[in-house]
Amino acid sequence: MHGYVDLHLHSTYSDGVFAPAVLIDKAAALGLKAIAIADHDTVDGVDEALEYGKSAGVEVLPAIEFSVEFGNYHDVHLLGYLMDHRDAGLKEILGTFRERRETRVDAIVERINEKLAREGRQPISAQEAASLAEGSIGRPHIAQILLQRGYASDMQDAFKSYLIPCNVPKQYFAIDEAIATVRRLGGVAILAHPVSISKEREVLESVVSRLQGLGLDGVEAFNNICSDQESAFLRSLAARHGMIWTGGSDFHGIEEGIEIGSGRGSMVVPYDCVTELKRIQAGR
């Protein structure tokens, strides 16, 4: 995989199970030239990753994945690359959002404990899960506590048995505000796994066109939920609209069959994507 990249990974700073250094070591072992650790709604792990990447010989791009909503579309994800992640205003915005996320975790744990009580099992606590999170707490941290208690056999079982049935909806950023924030901080805004919005091509093209009007720079053409045909469509869509495309595995460490650098096996993302991101960033 020499010369290739993976621009969508998650670490323990949000809902991944591996620390940034472990992800970087895995990328180095695979021969990846560059990666981006795009944690959900936090940049707390970026500096650590940048520093470790230098020693490991892997280029690390500053990144974030915003949880956003657009019209009637909820749980849309926006990737921000190469932005000023140390900006005080950004930290304040993300701090407020983190408080909301922690409130959601408390509510999920409360629901899980109700289910555990019905099963005759002892409760868990949000504080236990928070102790595992290096940054923003997420559902995988709760799942790890369920595993430690022996309430689930693996991560998939924890989600199927507890996290999904006891879920509480997220709160989201407005996508226009998220795009504006990325651009204000000199970054590049990319729509993550677009087919999660719709697999209908006319609908998807309309959404991307509207988002381009708000300042969207490109689409994630390679990801773990689209087929080879859909990836080809997303690349052609980007070309038609004069946008760029990127790709990443969206690796968290809990999904069966998803690997860093190759996704479900067929993903190949060239370093040219990094070059294009830098080209746009240089013009900001």
Automatic annotation (TrEMBL):
InterPro entries: PHP_dom, PHP_domain, Pol/His_phosphatase_N, Pol/histidinol_Pase-like. One of its GO terms (molecular function) is 5'-3' DNA exonuclease activity. Pfam families: PHP. Signal peptide: none annotated. CDD domains: PHP_HisPPase_AMP. Residues 5-70 form the Polymerase/histidinol phosphatase N-terminal domain. It comes from the Bacteria. This is PHP domain-containing protein.
